[in-house]
Amino acid sequence: MVSGQNPINVPEIDLSNLKPMTPEWDSARSQIWKAVEEFGCFRVVFNKIPQNLPNSILNELKELFDLPLETKKLTNHITDLYGGYVGKSLFGPLYESIGFDDPFMLEKVEKLINAILPPGKPEFCKHVHDLAKLMSEMETMIVRMVMESLGVEKYLDEHCNSVFHALRVQKYEIPQKGEVEVALNIHKDQDVMTILYQSQIDALEVETRDGKWVDVKPSSDNFMVVIGETLHAWTNGRAHSPYHRVIMRGNRPRYSTGLFTAFKAGFVIKAPEELVDEQNPLLYKPFDHFEFLKLIKRDAEHYETNPNPSYIPLIAYYGIDV
């Protein structure tokens, strides 16, 4: 059982209606960078995405996850590494999800849904497709602000050409007997960035730099952004990638949808030379994101049973002693 946590919340930043090279953009960029450094996560208001779009997806998820297990597993024959069905495990005892590995391709979204819910759900598929595209615009804006804050915005085009996006829909079950339970264990994301929209149920918690756990209060008008280890490595440690977990305390399941941004296989992730100097020596060897995931999968048992700061896969595999 996990006790209640600190009610302090992470920053909320409004990225609506912003144009580069304006005072409003500069103010938001300053807030973004402060949150990236201090928390590694923050909430975003982005009114380009109407609230009814992500909510319409969440409203369909009960039917999707109520399907038989073998039916949900059919998605694993249709998608790649970032797509398909993930079931309950030691690491996520109350967690399951279904991923769309190329949500920008409407026909691929439809192919997955048609396989498990014939004759399909065209409106749901269109909503997944539309939400992914709009969330990716938010991701690009945030990455641009991070790069501008570091003076390395010349790498933005390379970033946009080197990443892919996957969208996952997720369910967290109700704990038995109403007890407080860990639904998804302590972890860092290995991608560049995760953007979440969640149902109005408190469950997501993030560890601050000083070791305190804080609740991330969901709201219908904001998205949750979590910085991954890959962006932490690319910025040579300047962007913080936080530990987080999901703790279920209520009598209702929690549903969420998330856009995951990661570098394509074959792209070598390394800090720009502008971010490496005597005061900031190189922290990580260059690496391939998918090779990183293979190493984690190989050592999954150790990682899942030792989810503590003493074992950080990125440092274990690619860290440089300084």
From TrEMBL:
Keywords: Iron, Metal-binding, Oxidoreductase. Gene3D superfamilies: B-lactam Antibiotic, Isopenicillin N Synthase, Chain. It holds the Pfam family DIOX_N. GO terms for molecular function: metal ion binding; oxidoreductase activity. Residues 163-266 form the Fe2OG dioxygenase domain. Transmembrane segments: none annotated. Belongs to the iron/ascorbate-dependent oxidoreductase family. This is Fe2OG dioxygenase domain-containing protein.
